[in-house]
Design goal:
GO molecular function: ATP binding; ATP phosphoribosyltransferase activity
CATH superfamily of the largest domain: Periplasmic binding protein-like II
Helix content: 25-40%
Organism: Siminovitchia fortis
Number of helices: 9
Protein name: ATP phosphoribosyltransferase
Distance between the termini: 31 Å
Strand order of the largest sheet: 2-3-1-4-11-5
CATH architecture of the largest domain: 3-Layer(aba) Sandwich
Radius of gyration: 19 Å
Number of domains: 2
EC number: 2.4.2.17
Largest sheet: 6 strands, mixed
CATH topology of the largest domain: D-Maltodextrin-Binding Protein, domain 2
Subcellular location: Cytoplasm
Number of strands: 11
Length: about 210
Amino acid sequence: MKPTIALTKGRLEKQFLAFLQSKGYDIAPLTDKGRKLQIETDDFFAVFAKGVDVATYVEHGIADLGIVGEDILLEFEPDVYDLLPLPFGKCRLAIAGEPEGPRSFGKQRIATKFPNITTKYFRERGKSVDIVKLEGSVELAPLLGLADNIVDIVETGNTLKENGLVVKEEMMSISARCIANRNSLKLKKSVLAPLIDSFRIEEAAI
């Protein structure tokens, strides 16, 4: 029985496929999939979904393993086993805003896609803020007066710079993670072990 891996569509998908290729896996079926969301390879079945849905599929046992950003695990806290970090998808979660904007984080309005992470971060530091949950480009919020600052994922910082924003405080570093369904780890151990072991080779270098 082949294992099923849920992959986060987009940037992480491309980085994971390059990672697989470096391990000697044949990724041709995954790169030539067109618009298909389910693909079978010689080694596993792959399903493609948004990050939060990847975690859901793994939690409910639809997928045995998942490749997802660490931010998803921190924000939604799915009931999955966080196996190991992967050597890609590295970025930062940061507080950003206009250079002349507020720097003392008191009772401010913070726009973010990550209300749970943000609330916890400020609460642990004894700060009280109002959270505005956004789904799209949070960089607009301080520019249009919706929020004083934002909390968002920063990779290169180019998007912030192009919109006249700067990083004011780095909250944490995050990376891609390999997650697993808890029951699958027990019931399909012999099937999953070779795949997981192939991912672990790079762990010490992270």
